[in-house]
Amino acid sequence: MALSNRFFLCGIPILFVGLVAMAEEAWVSDQFEVMLRSGPSSSNAIERMLPSGTAIELLESDAESGYSKVRTTGGTEGWVLSRYLMDEPSAREQLERLSSRLSNANATGSSLSSQLNSIKSEYDAATSRIASLELEKRALEQDLAEIKRTAANVLAIDGQNKGLQEQVATAEIEIAILEQQNRELSERTTRYWFVTGAGVILVGMLLGLWLPRIKWQRRSRYDRF
Hints:
Elements: H1 2-22, E1 33-37, E2 46-51, E3 56-62, E4 67-72, E5 77-81, H2 91-224
Antiparallel strand pairs: 1-2, 3-4, 4-5
């Protein structure tokens, strides 16, 4: 008897240790279903089971029975226990929505970052293009200035040409006048020499006629003596 009691006493600590080892933490699941009944009592038939977090429309409440009449998004109407209804989604549902929004925000942030990088690339390309256009503009302005200088020189040369043409025309007129005067002078000279020659010939003829008479008269005088 003493031996059996000794074994019993020795077995109690071992059993206690085994029970302690089996004790673990656990939580009650927030996933449950609410019965949608055809009437405001547990004796009414169950129309369907509504999972927790289901959005429904509250039609009326019966405080005496503790049931509320609701309508699902599919149009099914029935009664559920009022204590299972909340004014806002459950914490788990809100957490899922927040997680979804956070994921969407991260995706949106990534998209915005991608768009920002794309916009930055386009901005850099536009800046480079503007710088290139500025260089082209400066080159064109220099070409335009050179063209203007050339045009001014051409206009000046054209003006000079016109002035020279006018001078040439004036000189040609003066040359024509001088040539006319020269022709007139030449004609006068010719006439003068012609008249002079005619006079010389006439004088010679007269002398030719008159000199023999003088010689004859002298001879006659000599003959008288």
